[in-house]
Amino acid sequence: LFGPFLLGKNPLAREVIYDRLYHMNNVRGHVGGFVVDAMAGIEMALWDLAGKHFGAPVCELLGGPFTGTLKAYVSGLRQPTVEAQLQAALAFKEQGFGGIKLFLGQGLRADTDTVRRVRDHVGADYSLFGDALWRYQVGDALRLGRVLEALGFQWLEAPLAPEDLPGHRELALALDLPIAVGEALRTNYEFLPWLGPPRALDVVQPDVLRTGITGACKIAAAAEARRLPVAPHVGMCTGIGIAATWQFAAAIPSFLIQEFQLELTQNANRHLRTPLETRDGRLLVPSLPGLGIEVDEESIRQSSTSHWTVE
Q1: Within the chain, which residues score under 70 in pLDDT?
Q2: Nearest-CA neighbor of 43 among 11, 8, 10?
Q3: H or E element: which one contains 147?
């Protein structure tokens, strides 16, 4: 559907193309999901093309950067044993990363044990974040939130089912602990009810692979107008998506901290000629034109099973 529409269009007209693609489908009920994901992939490619056309990284085209390095937290302790996880947590702290996010959602008792164990190991001065992976209902989410509050956690992410807007509002009102939400939402239209009033979140987490850069900027502007911080989400992702996220994060005034998926980034770098880099726990925003990366097309071909050409 999108491919034939794009042929012959001005590739520098990113906002126009984003608008047209969205309105091709919203009247048919496609206001999120894979349709908007496809839009995101297209418009990230257009931003990359524009940056290469003008000889500037995307963060400069967006009016930035505010910084060339991003404060980041490591997403998850994925080691096979508890002892290995605790050792990894200390190693990330020593490397300079701004915090660690723990994947929870295993039940109130198990999660409480996990967060207390890690807090005791890394010390009271180190930033920890909790992600409940949408698995709780309001009652237990509130109990878990109070535990995280007492332990000095920075936020509770995705505590309830992504459809439960009223429940998130209840949590946001009941807890001093910030509630972080965003990975399931794809447009500023979807975010607006969460931004209130009454507000259902405290930290805004657009995922550029789902929003696109244009959509993420609209969401960040809405958050900024409400004085809410933005912490871009990174889930399953390619090197292209990670680079696009870092370019976006560098260019927004409301930026808080960036999610960093260590193993995912290492795998993504296998397909890039210009690897994504970190230094002293901070993420180095690529400075080459466009998204700032060069894809190793031969590596992609070797990892692919099929491809399509739109004619």
Answers
A1: none
A2: 11
A3: helix 138-150
